[in-house]
Amino acid sequence: MAHSTLHSGDVPLPAVADSAAEEATYRKITLRLMTFLFLCWVLNYLDRVNVSFAQLQLKHDLGMSDAAYGLGVSLFFIGYILLEVPSTLLLRRIGARKTVTRIMLLWGGISTAMAFMTAPWQFYLARTLLGAAEAGFWPGIILYLSYWYPAKRRARITSRFLLAIAVAGIVGGPLSGYILQNFMDVWGFRNWQWLFFLEGLPAVIAGVVAYFYLIDRPQEAAWLTDEQKRLVIGALEEESRSKPHDAPSNLLAALRDPRVYVIAAGWATVPICGTILNYWTPTIIKQAGVSNLLQIGFMSALPYIVGAIAMLFIARSSDLRLERRWHFVSVTTAGAAGAVLLTLVTHNWLAAIGCLSLVSISYFAAAAIIWTIPPTYLKGTAAAGGIGVISSLGQVGAFFAPIVLGWVKSVSGSFSAGILLVALFTFVGGIAVLLGVPRERRAP
């Protein structure tokens, strides 16, 4: 009786056993589900941003200016914004398996078909269709994670999922640079055509695999034991009971909740930072004096590496301290500072990469933190619809930012004015979350 606790401390043996079982359960879930979703997001994001490398040659072949390219980038967000909420609500009804299958098949097919563009209007059409195809993937996965992981684990698991964007940048830069450098006029096709084809086809394959591999809910997971299912479901039910009694439970209630719009303002900082990082990094590095396409590819990967590493530490700190607001405003301020400094070092590639790294830290860490907040306030249909609304509203800035940057670049030959606007909006979005998310009801 006297030895009912561990001799190394005062934690009861059953608590230790329960903790070990819980960790083992979530490790199994992460390996089984997140590994595949991670791969899908790598392929998805690679196909979204490889246009930043293709445009180095694509603009000349299709006769497009920087402003026209910026418009094409922005058109992606029209279908994306319009279909975010319907797609997320549909995932709640039909499950992640069918949703991810649909998105990956359509996405991969359209991306592959971009290899055969011959006119600017086809570029505009393809970008619009890509946005419509992808709509609902990111908010859908955020909702899907809430079916498996309680809030106390969500920032870390979201940060691991976001690593896929970093991997897409780290792998995609050198890969895209290699294809552009070595596939010029192979079999009569231009290097950017090979880029779209070779990087789009794997997404189609992933879509087929998703239909047979993914599981919608813990209750349906044959690879979990009954005890593991009870553990996961119990943790989620306990979290649901702990939500505020006035938490919105339907879409209309979520639309009337001002916190939805505050969180959307915070989320908007992420795609706005991403406009610089994902669509103009190769051009910025080239403008700083680097001309070799393969070198540009490798250099473009560096900010993603820095942002990914920083995100893991910041997300862990946010979870351990159960604090979101100050973590969020800290990283958005860093991103705004990096953007401002970037306008001063346009002809120094090393300093430019350092500034892009600060933007990258804001991009990744802000995304990991902001999406831990909505499931805390929303439940039921409001969780699905509210997350879709937040994602859609946040992408409005992503629609305008590429147009502004492309137009400024065409008119002035410099990104400076547009990048300063990005810095301003990023800083304001961070302050909005700090002041608008009530301290007593921050994400747990």
TrEMBL record:
Residues 33-441 form the Major facilitator superfamily (MFS) profile domain. The chain crosses the membrane at residues 29-47, 67-91, 103-123, 129-149, 161-180, 192-214, 260-281, 293-314, 326-345, 351-371, 383-408, 414-437. GO terms for cellular component: membrane. It holds the Pfam family MFS_1. The keyword Membrane applies. The keyword Isomerase does not apply. It is a multi-pass membrane protein. It is found in: Membrane. GO terms for molecular function: transmembrane transporter activity. Keywords: Membrane, Transmembrane, Transmembrane helix, Transport. InterPro entries: MFS, MFS_dom, MFS_trans_sf. PANTHER family: PERMEASE-RELATED, TRANSPORTER, PUTATIVE (AFU_ORTHOLOGUE AFUA_6G08340)-RELATED. This is Tartrate transporter. It comes from Pandoraea eparura.
